[in-house]
Design a protein that fits this description.
Order of helices and strands: HHEHHHHEEHHEHHEHHEHHH
Number of strands: 6
Strand content: 5-15%
CATH topology of the largest domain: Bacterial polysaccharide co-polymerase-like
Shape: rod-shaped
Structural class: alpha+beta
Helix content: over 70%
CATH class of the largest domain: Alpha Beta
Distance between the termini: 60 Å
Strand order of the largest sheet: 2-3-1-6
Largest sheet: 4 strands, antiparallel
Number of domains: 3
CATH architecture of the largest domain: 2-Layer Sandwich
Length: 505
């Protein structure tokens, strides 16, 4: 431990003994370093915030959802700092002054790409910042340049949104028009083939309908007719039941005698049939025999035969209508069955022609479906393009306009000035220590003992007369004045830096 302390004391003594070397080297390093720091231009940063509106009812009506707009925003953000856009920024600001060669432009574009940042604070809130510095500009001009760069980036954001959407929409519409033209040519060719086939085979292809389609349509219609026929027959049976239970005539003013008994017996017979009793039932047979005897008695009595029953007449007209409906359905059913048999026989007799008819019809239907789908998609795309051109898919709102920087963000000049001062003092101390190591002197008796290998009995301190002491005091005053001047220059530089920063407009 004592050895380390002695070495430290020796080093301090060597540095202090050569303090003029320390001061001279410190002055040289500090002046050079402070000159370099003074040549570094100040960098100023301007910031802006923009809000992107994602919810748009009109855009959602045409199929442009929030997810689509988010993808558009991401794409804009990624392409905003492209080389082409940065070149536009350079040519529209003072950065482009003096740029004459492509190499110079590439160098400035590379530097500007590092100086511009587009950050997403939220899904629809973005911050654009730019740092500008130039050795040939004043601090105020650099600050205004940073503001101009950010403003130009916002303008490019708007232009890319509008122009990009229009360009993409135009490209997509051109592609859709070409596809529609191709499909139209194919559809016209298929329609021509179908027309020629119909002219050669009018029985197998009527109105563009193939054999299988005609058979399927006939079967479908036949199934519907069978269902309607069953319903009509059920309704006819119901009206027949009602007719069986309804007397054809109404009794006269007198209900007695053989005629009254006859009417009552006929009513009972109708009631039995309504209940489902057949003519072979014993009660029905007995009642019929009774009716036959009563008719003979009623005929011998004479007198009024009774009034016609209006309900019975109405039921008769309904029955006639339903019978006509059933007969019509039966006729249509027979006609369809005959048509199906005819088509099937033609298909069996001409299988190759029927297969060709089916193929031609299928090709035409496929092409027609594709053409209609493409036409609908093209119209939807055109409408979407018109809406986007009118209002823009992405609506921007500048929340915070580009700020005017008041203080530089780089370099940290006070810290650099302090660093240069510390470096100068360190360099001076190192130089003095190195000079002391080069000279063959011993600062302590311990070092002398180690060097000679002999014991040192003592040491004699330096003794000065009055003139020597006066000279020492004078030189110390000069040393202190030089050191104070170095610190004073450092303080003046700090004050000048603060004044310069405060005067930036």
């Amino acid at each position: 431990m004592n050895g380390i302390f002695d070495e430290l004391r020796a080093a301090i003594y060597a540095v202090w003994h050569r303090r003029w070397v320390v001061l001279g080297v410190a002055w040289g390093v500090c002046l050079l370093g402070w000159a370099v720091v003074a040549m570094i231009p100040n960098s100023y940063e301007s910031k802006a915030k923009i809000y992107v509106q994602l919810d748009d009812p009109l855009a959602e009506q045409i199929g442009v959802g929030v997810g689509d707009r988010k993808r558009d925003i991401t794409k804009l953000r990624q392409t905003l700092t492209s080389a082409e856009n940065l070149e536009k920024v350079i040519r529209s600001t003072r950065l482009g002054d003096g740029v004459t060669t492509p190499k110079q432009m590439e160098s400035i574009v590379a530097g500007l790409g590092k100086a511009i940042k587009v950050e997403s604070e939220q899904d629809n809130l973005f911050k654009i910042s730019a740092v500008a510095s130039s050795a040939g500009m004043s601090d105020g001009e650099s600050a205004r340049l940073a503001q101009d760069i950010v403003q130009k980036m916002i303008d490019l954001f708007r232009e890319e949104n509008i122009a990009g959407n229009r360009g993409e929409m135009g490209t997509q519409l051109d592609f859709m028009d070409k596809q529609l033209a191709q499909r139209q040519e194919q559809l016209e060719t298929a329609e021509k083939r179908r027309t020629e086939f119909e002219a050669r085979n009018p029985d197998l292809a009527q109105g563009g309908v193939s054999v299988l389609q005609r058979l399927e349509a006939a079967r479908s219609e036949l199934r519907g007719i069978d269902a309607d026929l069953a319903s009509a027959q059920s309704a006819l049976a119901a009206i027949n039941g009602q007719l069986a239970g309804t007397p054809a005539t109404l009794a006269g003013t007198s209900t007695g005698g053989a005629r009254g008994a006859l009417n009552q017996a006929m009513g009972e017979l109708a009631s039995m049939k309504a209940r489902g009793l057949t003519d072979n039932h014993p009660d029905v047979i007995t009642l019929k025999n009774q009716i036959a005897s009563l008719k003979a008695s009623a005929a011998s009595e004479g007198g009024p035969a009774g009034m016609p029953n209006p309900a019975y007449s109405s039921l008769q007209s309904i029955k006639a209508e339903r019978q006509a409906n059933v007969q019509g359905l039966i006729s249509r059913r027979a006609s369809l069955q005959g048509e199906m048999a005819q088509v099937t026989s033609k298909q069996i007799n001409n299988p190759e022609v029927a297969a060709e008819a089916q193929r031609i019809s299928r090709d035409y239907d496929v092409l027609k479906t594709q053409y209609d789908k493409l036409l609908q998609d093209r119209e939807e795309l055109r409408l979407r393009g018109q809406v986007e051109s009118a209002s823009g898919t992405i609506k921007l709102q500048v929340v915070d306009p580009p700020s005017t920087p008041r203080r530089p963000v780089a370099p940290n000049r006070p810290l650099l000035l302090i660093g240069v001062l510390i470096l100068g003092l360190g360099a001076g101390c190192s130089a003095a220590f190195a000079v002391g190591q080069l000279r063959s002197t011993f600062s302590t008796t311990t070092k002398l003992e180690r060097a000679l290998g002999l014991p040192v009995l003592g040491s004699i301190s330096q003794t000065l007369n009055e003139a020597g002491r006066t000279l020492r005091r004078k030189r110390m005053k000069q040393f202190y004045a030089g050191s104070a001047a170095l610190v004073g220059v450092f303080v003046l530089l700090l004050v000048a830096e603060s004044i310069q920063v405060g005067t930036v407009a």
